[in-house]
Design a protein that fits this description.
The structure holds 2 protein chains of 2 kinds. By secondary structure, chain A is an alpha+beta fold. Chain A has 11 helices and 10 strands. Chain A folds into 3 domains: 98 residues, Butyryl-Coa Dehydrogenase, subunit A, domain 1; 85 residues, Butyryl-CoA Dehydrogenase, subunit A, domain 2 (Beta Barrel), CATH 2.40.110.10; 157 residues, Up-down Bundle (Butyryl-CoA Dehydrogenase, subunit A, domain 3), CATH 1.20.140.10. In chain A, strands 1-4-5-8 form a 4-stranded mixed sheet. Chain A has a 4-stranded antiparallel sheet with strand order 2-3-7-6, with no helix packed on it. In chain A, helix 6 packs parallel to helix 8. Chain A starts with a helix and ends with a helix. Chain B folds into 3 domains: 109 residues, Orthogonal Bundle (Butyryl-Coa Dehydrogenase, subunit A, domain 1); 108 residues, Butyryl-CoA Dehydrogenase, subunit A, domain 2, CATH 2.40.110.10; 123 residues, Butyryl-CoA Dehydrogenase, subunit A, domain 3, CATH 1.20.140.10. Helix content of chain B is 45%, strand content 15%. Chain B has 11 helices and 8 strands. In chain B, the strands form 2 sheets. In chain B, strands 1-4-5-8 form a 4-stranded mixed sheet, with helices on one face. Chain B starts with 15 loop residues before the first helix and ends with a helix. The mean pLDDT of chain B is 95. Classes of the chains: A alpha+beta, B alpha+beta.
Chain lengths: 344, 376
């Protein structure tokens, strides 16, 4: 990471460590949207990061976005920052001026009919209810188009993911100006998926680092049989395994933070590898924390439930493993070792 | 990341593509072996000699000692190419990776001048003398000892699990030169023991695969001249510890099963099932991340750092990967497989138990990682 990225990470971390408390996480889960924290992030320019300045963006590139989102993951930020920054990157790539945030991408069964009516329903739209603008992906004849829609004009059926974050169904039936129908290429669609997967990867890496730190802290604090449980080899060995998974995740995530432009193979590797680490690590984190970590009151669950959600979002491990395997196997002219060294 | 662990992204400089191509060309011309990516699987003195002639043994050492003054990352490229091609590297591997750098760091001027050029020329091969019949993970409990005599030391005791001692020229042995005291790690020294010396007996031990690549060595009043003591007498423990980052962080800690993966890929490529494709992708994802972590450590070594904890971590992660690959592939192999596939898989299953033992057991490594986490 370069100096500017380190600075951005530390600014984000400072804001979140001051404001993203367990209490705030609990309240957010009970439906109190942390508006003030969003405003703080907005004031720091973090909610438009990666967007072209000429289009109303905050500048910076997608690597910077990932650097900030790792911190969001570390603090289990209960706000649609990743969703918004994904929207910012999509609009910016299309050369479209940024709409008011929070921005949330919405895909599902949406289509535009001959009368320019956008009709359909999309399920499991993360933070759908908190969006100001929805970026709806819809089919129009044999094209895919992106339509910015004011969230106040759609119907929301509330739901939640494993982490208790909003995961809503969105129902739309409204006329869309042709100027608000932006054609997406196949490449553009793939870029959206790739960026989404990269975002979840670094968020998981941040959450994993934090979960390890919480678990190590707990093991040193908690005494049984007259000594901290950290002194038992059985516990040490488990935490060492946890650390290996976190180290691998961090390395896979940081590749994405220093590689410009993002490429699909690195993202596939990161999402598959970190998703795997998430399951294994969450298991150890809970085992070491014992019953207290299984309570809703403890901060750990805000991290582990997100890990369990994020590993499935934008393609689970199997999806990306298959993608990676298929790409590698299809190129029968290049030996595996050459393929691996070419990835760097 | 967490405290004391550093895997900051590092990349191999693009100019190293050339040495990679040179090594690939060389290996393609040489290739007359059954490929096996386990660094311990094949030993061929003639191959090592020809390899040395290319300047690829001791390539980071000063030219004055037969080295090439090339970077540690360049060496990284050469070693990973050797392993990926499954070349018989067993003869020179230890001397190049470990014994040479040890002498370079702690040896006297005379030792460096005497021993290093012979290693770099592929003339002399080395073994590691750490374990003993009663000493495995608890290295400080060694009993092989030496007493000072006129002009040197008289060595008695035994070392075990010494790979290729029957083919090699020297053993770098950790021995007690003072009786055990309160300070467990004091009183040890490292000797360069010529394996042809009088009083040295080498007895082969058959491993479960039926091979005799490792040995027990007995020392019966073996005279070791003073100029064969590495560094300061009594400093043996610190010296041995300084070898660990080199010993544990390299590509040999995660590539041992690589040929199995290659054969699997070849066998499924024409018509892979979804499960096979996923498994292949999963195993490559792990491998790419391990390699990137290992390159991060190589960059730290190049910068003169001693990343012991990182090295322990990657060894544990890499060794577990090596053990897991054949187990998973076994269950996804096609009904009809080539001879090459069957052989690679069988070889790997038979040798896999050694992966998580050699160079520090899984349990010891995890203990080190736990210390790095502040738990001990």
């Amino acid at each position: 990471m370069n100096e500017q990225q380190q600075l951005m990470a530390s600014v984000t971390r400072r804001i979140l460590s001051d404001h993203c408390s367990t209490e705030l996480l609990d309240q957010a889960e009970q439906g109190q949207y942390p508006e003030a924290l969003w405003t703080l992030l907005e004031e720091q320019g973090l909610t438009t990061l990666g967007g072209f300045e000429a289009l109303g963006g905050g500048g910076g590139d997608f690597c910077d976005v990932l650097v900030v989102l790792r911190e969001a993951g570390r603090y289990a930020l209960p706000l649609p920052l990743a969703e918004t920054l994904l929207g910012v990157s999509v609009l910016s790539a299309l050369g479209v001026a940024l709409s008011d945030g929070p921005l949330v991408m919405a895909s599902g069964q949406f289509s535009l009919d001959a009368d320019q009516r956008l009709v359909g329903r999309g399920a499991r739209i993360r933070f759908g209810r908190d969006a100001k603008t929805l970026l709806v992906v819809a089919e129009r004849d044999d094209q895919t188009v992106l339509c910015p829609v004011l969230a106040s004009q759609v119907e929301i059926e509330p739901g939640v993911n494993l982490a208790g974050e909003p995961s809503d169904a969105v129902v739309i039936d409204q006329k869309i100006e042709t100027s608000n129908q932006i054609v997406l290429s196949g490449e553009g669609l793939q870029a959206i998926e790739m960026r989404g997967a990269a975002m979840r990867s670094v968020m998981m890496a941040g959450a994993l680092e934090e979960a390890l730190s919480l678990t190590v802290g707990y093991a040193l604090e908690r005494s049984q049989f007259g000594k901290p449980i950290a002194k038992f080899q059985a516990v040490q060995q488990q935490l060492a395994v946890f650390a290996t998974q976190v180290a691998a995740s961090t390395r896979a995530a940081e590749t994405l933070m220093v590689t410009q432009p993002l490429n699909l193979m690195d993202v596939a590797i990161a999402k598959a590898r970190i998703g795997e680490a998430a399951g294994l690590s969450a298991e150890i984190a809970h085992q070491v924390h014992g019953a207290i970590g299984y309570t809703k009151d403890h901060r750990l669950n805000h991290l582990t439930r997100r890990l369990w959600s994020w590993r499935d979002e934008f393609g689970h491990e199997g999806y990306w493993q298959e993608h990676l395997g298929r790409e590698l196997l299809a190129d029968t002219k290049t030996e595996l070792w050459q393929q691996i060294t070419a990835m760097g | 990341m967490f405290q004391g662990m550093n895997f900051a992204p590092a990349q191999l400089p693009p100019e190293l593509a050339r040495v990679r191509e040179e090594v690939r060309d060389f290996l393609n011309q040489e290739k007359d072996w059954v490929p096996n990516s386990d660094f311990n699987a094949g030993a061929c003195p003639d191959f090592s000699k020809r390899f040395a002639a290319k300047g690829w043994i001791g390539m980071t050492w000063p030219k004055a000692y037969g080295g090439g003054e090339r970077s540690f990352l360049e060496r990284y490229v050469v070693t990973e190419e050797l392993l990926a091609a499954g070349a018989p590297v067993g003869c020179h591997w230890i001397a190049d990776r470990q014994s040479g750098p040890l002498l370079l760091r702690f040896g006297t001027e005379a030792q460096k001048a005497q021993f290093l050029p012979e290693i770099a020329a592929g003339n002399h091969f080395y073994s590691i003398g750490m374990s003993e019949p009663d000493t495995g993970s608890d290295l400080a409990s060694i009993r092989t000892s030496a007493v000072a005599v006129e002009g040197g030391w008289k060595l008695n005791g035994s070392k075990i699990w010494t790979s290729n001692a029957h083919l090699n020229h020297y053993l770098v042995a950790l021995v007690r030169t003072s009786p055990p005291s309160e300070q467990r790690h004091a009183g040890m020294s490292q000797f360069i023991v010529p394996l042809q010396a009088e009083g040295v007996t080498i007895r082969g031990i058959e491993n479960l695969a039926g091979e005799q690549d490792f040995n027990q060595i007995f020392f019966d009043d073996v005279f070791i001249p003073d100029d064969h003591v590495v560094g300061e007498p009594g400093n043996g423990w610190a010296q041995v510890m300084s070898e660990l980052a080199y010993e544990r962080s390299g590509p040999e800690r995660f590539l041992s099963a690589f040929r199995v993966l290659v054969e699997f890929g070849k066998s499924i490529a024409p018509n892979p099932t979804e499960a096979q494709t996923r498994l292949y992708g999963q195993m490559v994802a792990h491998l790419v991340v391990l390699r990137r972590m290992s390159i991060s450590i190589a960059s730290l070594l190049e910068a003169g750092e001693m990343p012991d904890n990182e090295a322990a971590l990657i060894k544990d992660l890499g060794n577990n990967y090596e053990r897991w690959v054949p187990e998973m592939i076994r269950l996804q192999q096609p009904d009809e497989v080539s001879e090459g596939f069957a052989q690679a898989l069988n070889d790997c299953v038979l040798h896999a138990p050694s992966f998580t033992l050699r160079g520090g057991t899984r349990e010891i490594l995890r203990g080190m990682i736990a210390r790095g986490l502040g738990l001990r």
